Amino acid sequence: MTNQPGVPSFPHRHLLAIEGLQPSEITFLLDEAEQWVDAGRRARKHDDRLQGLTQINAFFENSTRTLLSFEIAGKRLGADVVNLAAGASSLKKGETLLDTALTLNAMRPDVIVIRHESSGAVALIAEKVDCPVLNAGDGRHEHPTQALLDALTIRRRKGGLEGLRVAICGDILHSRVARSNFHLLTALGAEIRAVAPPTLMPFDVERFGVTPFTDMDAGLEGADVVMMLRLQLERMDGAYVPSTREYFRTFGLTRSRLAAAKPDVLVMHPGPMNRGVEIDSAVADDIQRSAIAEQVEMGVAVRMACLDVLTRERRGDSR
Questions:
Q1: pLDDT on residue 1
Q2: What is the model's pTM?
Q3: Euclidean distance between CA atoms 117 and 176, whole angstroms
Q4: Omega within 30 of 0 (cis) for the link into 198
Q5: Where are the beta strands (DSSP E) in 79-203?
Q6: How far is CA 281 from CA 40, 217, 233, in A?
Q7: What is the separation of C-alpha 154 from the centre of its chain, rounded to a whole number of angstroms?
Q8: What's the CA gap between 6 and 61, in Å, rounded?
Q9: What is the biggest distance separating any 2 CA atoms in the chain, rounded to whole angstroms?
Q10: In a 3-state reduction of DSSP, which class is residue 55?
Q11: pLDDT tens digits, 154-197
């Protein structure tokens, strides 16, 4: 990708959301991630461009795969990586977000990766620290690196995103993954369908430029990509579905239901999967159609790209 001299390809200090990014900036991050996919498949995966830099992964909400992915990404780039399991630490014991920001900043990190249960919390902390911040998921707001890794997976499998019909199905209401994907995939020219029962469909979902469907079979018709979402029972404070068994019967992805999509449909899931709740094991493990394991691999590459790009100014790297 070529740029005008002196004009950065990604001019933002932080990566807090997909909303607001230009298509060219999104494409730049995807292009940067491509090199790390290849690097991750080599026997020797280490690169030292972040050597001497400190990366703090501050996760105020439980995570396994996202935390591990960011840790591997930072270590492969040579950073000193510190994982702060803030959900079980004193930082959670009544401390304000301002105090949390001041505490993290006093450690003088070079980049901070934050996951928080409250929407907007990561942006508030980013305003108070002296280094780049990456949002690893905040409440129901956004999960930008997940959307980037999803887009990279689709682009590598399908050759591009423009004109693809993508059905994002399940718990749309509580999903930050869905919101980030709405912003990213529509920005890059895909046709997005939001498929969910009425109780799990945001009333204003059409403002994202997507088409809502409350019938699963109709929503899957002619889809190039089907992205299933986890039923987030921990975020539900009421009876959103009659039961998980009934939910699977009407909105679970099975082979028979998938027949409405295109023959070469790509099946995705951000994980962790609830097998038998939102997706059948026969579909999840279909090596011809499922890209779920590939999404995990793309996650490391995308996070390496983001860590590299956001720390370039600190490192004096003009690439």
A1: 41
A2: 0.94
A3: 11
A4: no
A5: 80-84, 111-116, 133-138, 165-169, 191-195
A6: 27, 19, 20
A7: 13
A8: 39
A9: 58
A10: strand
A11: 999 999 999 999 999 999 999 999 999 999 999 999 999 999 99
Residues 6+ apart with CB under 8 A from 194: 168, 172, 178, 182, 201, 205, 208, 210, 211, 212, 213
Strand partners, 57: 83, 113
Kindly give, in sequence order, each residue whose CB lies less than 8 Å from that of residue 5, ignoring residues fewer than 6 positions away.
Answer: none
Nearest residue to 302 via CA among 208, 180, 194: 180
DSSP 8-class letter at 230: -
CB 140 within 8 A of CB 175: yes
* Residue 197, both tokens: 């029962």
Specify which residues 134 forms β-bridges with. 15, 113
Count the residues in the chain. Answer: 319
CA 54/CA 132 separation, integer angstroms:
11
Rounded to whole angstroms, how far apart are CA atoms 121 and 108?
20
Q: Is 280 left (phi over 0), alpha (psi -120 to 50) or beta?
A: beta
Q: CA 102 to CA 302: how far, in whole Å?
A: 28
Beta bridge partners of 111: 55
Over residues 74-105, the pLDDT tens digits come to 999 999 999 987 665 566 666 788 888 999 99
Q: Are strands 225-228 and 165-169 parallel, antiparallel or unpaired?
A: parallel
* Structural contact between residues 80 and 134, judged by C-beta atoms closer than 8 angstroms: no
Q: Would you call 134 helix, strand, or coil by DSSP? A: strand
- DSSP string of 264-298, one letter each residue: T-EEE--S---BTTTB-HHHHT-TTTB-HHHHHHH
Q: How high is the pLDDT of residue 233? A: 64
The dihedrals phi and psi of 238, each to the nearest 5 degrees, come to -160, -175
